[in-house]
């Protein structure tokens, strides 16, 4: 078991990451792999820590108060008490609302808010719609605009942005519609793609929906964002089309040699809402496939990464069926990716996701890698988060950093 790779920026105190605290595993974490075909979903159930919820009331923008909930993993030492339990992140559907004249889009919105926006956008010119990935701006200008207060939290954010600015000159804000983790990761991956990933070149890649449905009948309960009333058995061909689209777009962008032309192609792709959300459905399905592989590997006694234990230790996802019903089906509708699911996304894409976690500045978790023990040949994409819920992307690496 390895410790997550994190880097400190003037650490004043060190907090252990989850995998280093996790000392017990072989507990009942779901049904055996052969029972997946008949697994029933458990009712949604939130498991919340009572000792690690911090609410910082910060002044943001023009002195407006904003409450930011910081929820982290907590694993009790197994020797500390016979009643020790494993705590994992609970799904967060809270909305962060900024009330100012320059108010931008909420980081996380519920399903009703998203539907209301769709109605409003029906009569709106496409050029007037909110961009999925905003134009870049100087990272410190963005920081000064967002964090004007003098509270401890605001000061920490500014310090965090200053540290990021040592390596990146600009930032691009990501639209916050519960797909921001997908959007930020995919945009960064495509922006630097030079070839189609080997695992995408396989003929089996586009056959995943058919192959998984033949083994696991419960996958018919998959819910598409575009067609929430239909089941996977009726839309497996459409899911196959989404995977084909992902491979096509990835291949097209990777073949563009000029950096400016490649950037323009990515910008254009993320202006096409229909194609964009189709790509996210493909990513979610790849995550499900990866989860099934990890679950079956663990049940057969093979070694799996630590995050896999945490993923299936949750009461709401003790097996892949529950993970699909209680988490993956809700991504983009009523919630985004939880921290443990960022590991799953990284494994599904075979990318290392490096995240500047600004509220963790001055701790050894300021820069966190998902996964913490990636393969050496995995490409790296970099994101920024202020709260582990919404993600933006740093761009334009400083020249001396590149050297």
SS content category: alpha+beta
The biggest beta sheet is recorded as: 7 strands, mixed
Strand order of the largest sheet: 1-9-8-10-11-7-6
Q: On the 0-100 scale, what is the average pLDDT?
A: 75
What is the overall shape? globular
* CA-based gyration radius: 21 Å
How much beta, percentage-wise? 5-15%
Low-confidence stretches: 1-35, 37-110, 118-128
| Assembly state of the chains shown | single chain
Terminal-residue CA separation = 34 Å
What does this structure look like?
The protein is of the alpha+beta class and 403 residues long. Helix 7 (208-215) packs antiparallel against helix 8 (232-254) and helix 8 packs across helix 10. Helices cover 37% and strands 13% of the residues. A seven-stranded mixed sheet has the order 1-9-8-10-11-7-6, with helices on both faces. The model is unreliable at 1-35, 37-110 and 118-128 (pLDDT under 50). Strand 2 and strand 3 form a beta hairpin. The protein contains 14 helices and eleven strands. The radius of gyration is 21 Å and the shape is globular.
Layout: helices, strands, pairs:
Blueprint: E1 6-7, H1 18-21, E2 53-60, E3 64-71, E4 74-75, E5 86-87, H2 111-121, E6 137-138, H3 139-146, H4 152-165, E7 168-172, H5 180-191, H6 198-201, H7 208-215, H8 232-254, H9 259-269, H10 273-299, H11 306-311, H12 320-326, H13 339-349, E8 352-357, E9 367-370, E10 380-385, E11 391-397, H14 399-402
Parallel strand pairs: 8-10
Antiparallel strand pairs: 1-9, 2-3, 4-5, 6-7, 7-11, 8-9, 10-11
């Amino acid at each position: 078991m390895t410790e997550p790779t994190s880097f400190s920026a003037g650490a004043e105190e060190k907090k252990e990451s989850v995998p280093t605290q996790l000392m017990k595993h072989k507990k009942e974490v779901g049904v055996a792999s052969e029972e997946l075909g008949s697994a029933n979903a458990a009712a949604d159930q939130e498991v919340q820590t009572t000792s690690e919820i911090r609410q910082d009331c910060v002044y943001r923008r023009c002195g407006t108060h904003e409450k930011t909930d910081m929820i982290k993993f907590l694993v009790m030492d197994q020797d500390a008490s016979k009643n020790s339990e494993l705590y994992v992140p609970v799904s967060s559907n809270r909305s962060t609302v900024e009330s100012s004249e320059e108010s931008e889009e909420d980081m996380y919105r519920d399903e009703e808010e998203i539907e209301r926006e769709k109605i409003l956008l029906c009569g709106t010119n496409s050029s007037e719609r909110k961009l999925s990935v905003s134009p870049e701006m100087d990272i410190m200008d963005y920081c000064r605009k967002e964090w004007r207060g003098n509270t401890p939290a605001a000061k920490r954010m500014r310090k965090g942005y200053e540290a990021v600015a040592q390596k990146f000159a600009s930032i691009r804000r990501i639209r916050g519609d519960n797909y921001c983790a997908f959007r930020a990761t995919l945009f960064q991956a495509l922006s630097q793609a030079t070839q189609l990933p080997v695992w995408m070149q396989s003929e089996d890649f586009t056959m995943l929906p058919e192959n998984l449905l033949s083994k696991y009948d419960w996958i018919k309960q998959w819910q598409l964002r575009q067609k929430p009333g239909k089941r996977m058995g009726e839309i497996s061909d459409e899911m196959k089309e989404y995977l084909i689209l992902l491979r096509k777009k990835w291949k097209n962008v990777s073949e563009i040699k000029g950096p400016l032309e490649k950037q323009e192609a990515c910008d254009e792709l993320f202006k096409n809402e229909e194609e964009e959300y189709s790509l996210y459905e493909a990513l979610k399905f790849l995550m499900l496939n990866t989860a099934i592989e990890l679950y079956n590997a663990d049940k057969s006694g093979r070694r799996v990464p630590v995050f896999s234990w945490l993923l299936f230790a949750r009461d709401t996802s003790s097996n892949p069926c529950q993970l699909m019903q209680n988490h993956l089906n809700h991504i983009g509708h009523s919630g985004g990716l939880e921290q443990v699911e960022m590991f799953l996304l990284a494994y599904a894409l075979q990318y290392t996701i490096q995240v500047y976690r600004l509220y963790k500045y001055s701790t050894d978790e300021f820069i966190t890698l998902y996964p913490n023990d990636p393969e050496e040949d995995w490409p790296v994409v970099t994101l920024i988060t202020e709260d582990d819920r919404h993600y933006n992307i740093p761009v334009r690496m400083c020249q001396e950093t590149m050297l």
